[in-house]
Amino acid sequence: MTVKNNCIALRDAVVIKDLCFSYNNCDKILNGIELTVPKARIYGLLGPSGCGKTTLLKCILGRLKPDSGVISIFGGRPKKCHIPGAGVGYMPQELALYQDFTIGELLTYFGRIFAMNCNEINAKIHELIELLQLPKKNTLIG
User: Fold this and answer.
1) What's the CA gap between 36 and 24, in Å, rounded?
2) 23-60 pLDDT, tens digit each
3) Domains of the chain
């Protein structure tokens, strides 16, 4: 294994084990979260409003301290790995959605950033529209 910026280069970029978080020791917002994100992958975090997505991301970024559990970013703690940074990026939804794009154009744009070919992009667009029950791909985002 190689060490870079005090973070061990591992197979997984993000590993979360039994993560729990509550604001002011009241109701648990996150309870027993388990998550593994392999290196060199792009992931989206989806769920209904108020389910804890932003809280989880803030814990991963080191901006909130969990009540219990473990978060590992390339084998290190979030604040020690310069996250977000060269190893792990973070894009809030407000910045990710270009209002003048259609759903298909936006997904194509990010597919090209990830170096996917046209067939892979089209297959992924179809998969995501079906999985997430999105409108047709020619629907404007804004």
Assistant:
1) 27
2) 887 888 999 999 998 887 777 787 777 889 889 988 98
3) 3-91 (3.40.50.300), 97-132 (no CATH)
